[in-house]
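MOLECULE: protein
FOLLOWS: sequence and fold
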Amino acid sequence: MTKINPNILPKEKHIQTEKVQNISQYIKRVNEYIKVRGIKDGTVVYRGEPDVYPEPCRPNIFRRGVMNGNRFFEKSLFDAMRQNRLTGEVRYLDNAIDAQHGEFPSRLLDVSYNCLTALYFAVTPYYHQREDSMDTKDGMVFLFFVDEIFSPSAKNTNDNYDAIINRDQEWHQNHILFEKNHKFIDHTKLNSRIIAQQGAFILFQGDEPESLPKYMSYGILIPGEAKAGMRKELRQLFGIHTGSIYPEIINLVDELSSKSRKLNTEEFSCGNELEYALRQLDKELDYYFEYIVENSKNAKEEDMTRILMHVEHVIDSYRKGFLEFQENYERRFQEGEELGGLKRQELNRIIGKYNGAVQVFADNLKQYDAGEFAGQELQIYIEKAVAG
């Protein structure tokens, strides 16, 4: 996988370093980000972390190294949980949710619909530690803007998760392209801790933790010296503290009706996963185009060169993912099979959409005279890639 230096950009527009000292300033900052995003009916979720980690927003299974050399670790873990009656569920995704809140390793990243709940986690370490044990360190709250929702009870979501655990879909295994398909899984009302935290999850699909794309998140720095005061405000003003994060569940019908308009119900299939990756690319290109245009007038030439090289690396990681998939497809095609049941014509169409997105991005940059961009080198030549 292409490794991208996270510090290559001269300025990270999504993380403001101006310090917030109290909840009023924090809520104001949250509202500013929502306003800047300009969404009317989008879904916003939040995640708090008590430290500014070099690699933030990582599911704990990637931090513990438990999968090293053991591709079926998760399956074995869930089977053991069932055997010991630590979960009463029969679906792997439900097992994973129970594991997540039983302190077992999981590839699910916790998020919350409540920005104050996220703030609590940014100013308070895990409950095994003293509340003030990380008050010398700054924390972070991340905002995630979501436009597709996957239901934890839907067939497509469970088929997707089963494919990850069972590793029985060849087209889905170890493809860096599908590692980019981070999926927002809505909360369930069957787990008391999820109810208490108004929680949901972001699913990381790969064996390596592909970073969440830049377009998706914003960050708010919570200074260490403000943590004690914010904990006091959370307790006194909102009743949020270690022993009582139990919000009342209201307007459930309106909430579910609103979500249903954005609910992704596409069948879990090879073609749909490729299309999902394309949608991720489109969003990344939109983000970087705005970023480049904003910086093109005032940034130094060497800074613009670094920005364009960074964007080329991002696009190239998609290109390599599609090329790797094509190579596997061609190998199977020569053996008389179609990888993932995907027709050659459909693969041609998807690669064509990739080429079109890259070309439009390059053409738009040229109009703004934003510098040299290697758009042509990032194209995939269909006639060469899928020649039988």
About this structure: The chain has a mean pLDDT of 82. The chain has 14 helices and seven strands.
